[in-house]
Amino acid sequence: MQGLMMDTPLLISSIAKHAEMFHGDREIVSVTMDNPRHRCTVSDVTTRARKLANALDKLGLDQGDRVATIAWNDYRHLEIYYGVSGAGYVCHTINPRLFPEQLVFIINHAEDRWIFTDLMFVPLLEKLLPQIPNVEGFVVMTDEAHMPETALPNAVCYETLIANESSDYTWPDLDERTASALCYTSGTTGDPKGVLYDHRSTVLHAYASVAPDVMNLSSSDCLLPVVPLFHVNAWGIPYSALITGAKLVFPGPKMGDGEALYELIESEEVNLALGVPTVWLGLLQYCEQAGKILNSLDRTVIGGAAVPRAMIEQFKKVHDVRAVQGWGMTEMSPLGTANSPKFGSESMSEDEQLDLATKAGRGIFGCELRIVDDEGTELPWDGVAYGALQVRGPWICSDYYKLEGSAGTHTEDGWFDTGDVATIDPRGYMAITDRTKDVIKSGGEWISSIELENTAMGHPAVAQAAVIGVSHPKWTERPLLIVVKAEGQDIEKEEMLAYFDGKVATWWIPNDVAFVDELPHTATGKVKKIELRKQFADYAFPD
Ligand code: ADP
After folding, report:
1. pTM
2. Is residue 327 in contact with ligand 1, taking CB distance under 6 Å?
3. Domain 447-543 in CATH 3.40.220.10
């Protein structure tokens, strides 16, 4: 017997409608290229999204056509999110920090028909122009006063495009499985791969992410997504914020500027900020040097890379801010786990709580997790056994765009292999030990580069640390620690290595330390191990 419930589709436009009705007056603050502090409301954004939808329909786009963005986080970008997806087109967010050849590949592979761009990326697009002949036009996200002279064909100013459009627009009644957005993985190995989200997956992911043990969002929150709108839909914040009615503060191009972030947090009374660890290194460093305390912030959601224990500790002890670690990936919309305290953790010592906070967290409802060995046999959740981490759920990709059936990332029984190696403890907390390709294989055993990096980061003289496996005649591979020293600090190799004593198994201790001025980072702000391995390709351990 079937139930007797309505079958209304889960659509992104339904979030816009809800937001406008119940918290249309909520403020959205943006730093933009043409305004250092732009203020508007949720209603302004949804109204302008409808005007944009009218304008898009007139461009002659067909349902499902890709409309790209190359832009920082601000209110116009949010309008494009809703206008494009809501009208039945696919919003393809592009990471401007990718190499030009990757940008060309992505734009052509996605067959983007129009590109919306921030002012500052106009010169970049002009350079790419000969290689992206199929793009029909460009919308520069600014007003007439700031519109540049440009060689881009069919270049329109965003404000002009929507100025004379009606705000009357009936969002189409789409099938909830209609594609809504497209995001390419950063392609550290091979070409970038396109992950194609749909309305249903996006809405379900947003529902899940607002829950208390996940991001714990409510209408009283003030959110600062430092995670870019081009990095897996800013972890779903554009949707979850509008579901809840939280205030939004967009940093625009000021993402990597510790001082600007501090000023925004303090002046707008941000209580929750979200971003990758690298961003918080900059902010914490600024606070330390300038003698500032983060007064309004009460938590940060940090993900995209392992969060060093020292960072969690500094947030807690210096600023009284709880760092909530999350784990996920582009293929997962992105959320898979969140690290919130579970009943029973109240009795833990401060040290135990910190240890727990360094884990990736518990699976959130809607994302199943399992760890398997090389034969695909499930491993126990004992916090010790580690294996390939696989996931399943309604916001996990079932395949890659235009690569159907050929990526080899899905198991026969329908799970997605994440490429991460993990343990899961008896209380359900998952910890990433490595990416499969970063794991160090020493004498037939595995060493976790993440745990070694985390340990090294605990030393006050270490600003950043990365560990890679280097070939070794006896052990196959041994860990090499690469360190960027903290400003004004010094440390010798012997002291660094001695620091690991008693903190990790003796045979895990790196064989050597290399000091460098900086570490290479990927376009999403993670340490680029592939580049480090190239840099140290000729390195040999001392005898
Ligand atoms: P890419 O870095 O390839 O662009 P993603 O941004 O989707 O792609 O990154 C996903 C990967 O980032 C995960 O597979 C995992 O290796 C890493 N990652 C994300 N969150 C965490 C975390 N909390 N701890 C450790 N690694 C993480």
Report:
1. 0.92
2. yes
3. no
